[in-house]
Amino acid sequence: MIEESNLTRPPAPCIILVRPQMGENIGAAARAMLNFRLERLRIVAPRDGWPNARAADMAAGALDKMPPVEVFETLQDAAADLHYLYATTARPRDMVKPVFTPAAAVADCVRRGAEGQSTGLVFGAERAGLSNDEVALCQGIVSIPANPGFSSLNLGQAVLLLAYEHFQAVNDTPARQLDFGKSNPAPQAKLEEFLSRLEGELEANGFFRTAEQKPVMARNIRAMLTRAEMSEQEVSTFHGIVTALTRQKFG
Amino acid sequence: MIEESNLTRPPAPCIILVRPQMGENIGAAARAMLNFRLERLRIVAPRDGWPNARAADMAAGALDKMPPVEVFETLQDAAADLHYLYATTARPRDMVKPVFTPAAAVADCVRRGAEGQSTGLVFGAERAGLSNDEVALCQGIVSIPANPGFSSLNLGQAVLLLAYEHFQAVNDTPARQLDFGKSNPAPQAKLEEFLSRLEGELEANGFFRTAEQKPVMARNIRAMLTRAEMSEQEVSTFHGIVTALTRQKFG
User: What is the pTM assigned to this prediction?
Assistant: First the structure.
């Protein structure tokens, strides 16, 4: 059964920090969350109470731009309205739980959100992490693959990586794009016009040593200049280069 | 032409920090690198010289476990032996360059590394970032997609995200795995034995109200217990639960 309040809530996961000790880490987590558009922060039993001035400093304004942080006594309370919890833990716990990579965990959050489920990513205290009982409350585990010989990430960094993955999962930035800024990609005809002119000038200046070599040499030049995916502005610039270099000859 | 020194070098990208100001950020970058097994750190014109005590503090031992940091006067010097540079920049520069996401950039690094090319991920100073001339030196751009209304990431975090993506690209951690710890997944026969026993006990205790309802009710119980992917240990535990609950009846 999905309650109505969950249907109207944004599907992005909550971040739940359990017994965080350093205000700085809470602030860094909040900043990382807003960097990547996660805005629901819940804190269980923060050591130094709440609000926390050091958290506000490190958040660089993020806490003022997010809904108010919710503070709870226990993880049970913090998670009461959520449907699926992911415990972040590096240590194996000898409990049989699905273990997700960060990318797979957030993909699972996104899918559940689309189905009307509310999810929570749960982070333990700085040194001790989550207790076994807290891990047992969570349906899944998230483990950040890292260098086994040097794997300690701080709390703010762990939140950053999950928030980053969530943003990537919900935003379809093209993997590679060519930004032509104020210019446009040159149409084939403009490129062809330039290449023909260049070959003509090279021919006139004795660049192609023999008639046999010319086709291969011309093709190699074309391959390079075509691969560069020139803008219209750049084709104009190269016309200018040819003009300047051919003028110099008669200077 | 690939020089011999590049063929024998590991294919992982260098991290190049250009004019970093705060030792803390250099240290955080080094720690993040070693967390995700990038070990070649080059620094161009660090404001406070090198070595730097604050960097050593923040690195949490990482600098001692990595090859020595290399320090250069200019980005040209730092990049002399590299084949492809990725400038990390958030601001558009009105230069026509391929713009990669972090995941696409590191995939490109890995491919180039496999072909014997050395690559560098280039990060600018804390506030100003890379100069336009420095960006112009780089073949590609990496831009970290983030909340346009709150996008400022610090230097250590930016290095962390690229190092993290590189580690994910070269390590094939299964997206989701079920960790059975000291036990093993229960074979179908053990599960079936338990389910049959449970159905028999339920039948004997009048759980199935009518003969018509029994098949559906039994199927629903099977669906849940099968979905849980029980371990052998858990099947034993559930046998114990049934034993305990049926014993209680006669207590």
Answer: 0.87
On the question of pLDDT at A24 being above 70, the answer is: yes
Contacts with A, B 162-221, CB within 8 Å: 164, 167-168, 171, 173-183
The residue of chain B nearest to residue A179, with distances taken between CA atoms, is B96
Cβ neighbours of A62 (radius 10 Å) = 23
Q: Do B101 and A173 touch (CB under 8 A)?
A: yes
Q: For residues B191-217, b (16+ Cβ closer than 10 Å) or e, as one string?
A: beebbeebbeebeeeeebeeeeeeeee
Please answer yes or no on whether B150 and A62 come within 8 Å at the CB atom: yes
Q: Which residues contact A113 (CB under 8 A, 6 or more apart)?
A: A10, A11, A12, A13, A119
Between CA B25 and CA B30, with CA B26 as vertex, the angle to 5 degrees is 115
Burial label for A18, CB within 10 Å (0-12, 13-18, 19+), is: buried
Helix, strand, coil content of chain B in percent (nearest 5): 45, 15, 40
Across B146-197, the runs of DSSP E, i.e. the strands, are: 176-178
Using CB atoms within 10 Å of the CB of residue B236, give its burial: 0 to 12 exposed, 13 to 18 middle, 19+ buried.
Answer: middle
ipTM of the assembly?
A: 0.86
Name B177's Cβ contacts closer than 8 Å, sequence gap at least 6: A98, A99
Q: pLDDT-derived band of residue A172, with 50, 70 and 90 as boundaries?
A: confident
Tokens of A131: 């207790």
